[in-house]
Write a structure and sequence with these properties.
There is one protein chain. By secondary structure, this protein is α+β, with helices and mostly antiparallel strands. It has one domain. The protein is about 45% helix and about 15% strand. It contains three helices and three strands, in the order βαββαα. It has helices at about 20-25, 45-50, 60-80; strands at about 10, 30-35, 35-40. Strands 1-2-3 form a three-stranded mixed beta sheet. Strand 1 (about 10), helix 1 and strand 2 (about 30-35) form a beta-alpha-beta unit. The longest helix is centred in the last third of the chain and has 23 residues, at about 60-80.
Amino acid sequence: MTRILTKHIASMTEMREPHKVLERSAGEPVAILKNSSLVGYFVPAEAVEDTEIEVASETAVLGSLKGRNKRTAAVRDYLQDK
């Protein structure tokens, strides 16, 4: 079963009138369902307006990549011969 990450839901049919979906959700993200399966999220601009963008430092990026190298080493070794 798919986990829905918001409390608001709309069907693809309801998305024919997105302004009504926006009004009902009060500016919060809406999960879009088709045949009871999650197909995506409709995120109003006001839901992300207050989000601060934090730029990662070079040290943070390199640290993250170093951590991933250990997890992806086997795949990289396998693909190297292909």
